[in-house]
Design goal:
Layout: H1 2-22, H2 24-32, H3 36-62, H4 67-93, H5 102-116
Helix pairs in contact: 1-3, 3-4, 4-5
Subcellular location: Membrane
Protein name: DUF423 domain-containing protein
Family: Belongs to the UPF0382 family.
Length: 124
């Protein structure tokens, strides 16, 4: 149940972040400091991976013994937190050092995708 909540919250945050980056004063601020593209990248990756988290939550429910699915879920969740989260903080603070965190999130998401390759283990 918690995995479905995590996936849903990630999707909701992505929609809210996308809307705030597209409308009003926050959008103007992001455009003024030249960070709108980075904000949108964070939103895009978070939304795509919210769907992936939902699919993995379903896979774990169907295959509760799948260690690979649980590992993939954890890695992708951590990756989204680090990747999109660091981009959001970078854009909110305009402190470039936050960009150093972003690649670690990317690596975690890549590792999560690789773990997905092992989710189809046949049950006997």
């Amino acid at each position: 149940m918690a995995r479905f909540i995590i996936a849903g919250i990630n999707g909701a945050i992505a929609v809210a972040a996308g809307a705030s980056g597209a409308h009003g004063k926050w959008a103007e601020h992001l455009d003024e400091i030249g960070r709108l593209d980075q904000w949108q990248t964070g939103v895009h990756y978070q939304m795509v991976h919210a769907v992936v988290l939902l699919v993995l939550a379903l896979a774990i429910r169907v295959m509760p013994d799948s260690r690979a699915a649980r590992i993939a879920f954890a890695l992708i969740f951590a990756g989204v937190f680090l990747f999109s989260g660091s981009l959001y903080v970078l854009c909110m603070t305009d402190v470039s050092k936050w960009g150093a965190v972003t690649p670690f999130g990317g690596l975690s998401m890549i590792a999560g995708w690789i773990a997905c390759c092992f989710c189809s283990k046949r049950q006997k």
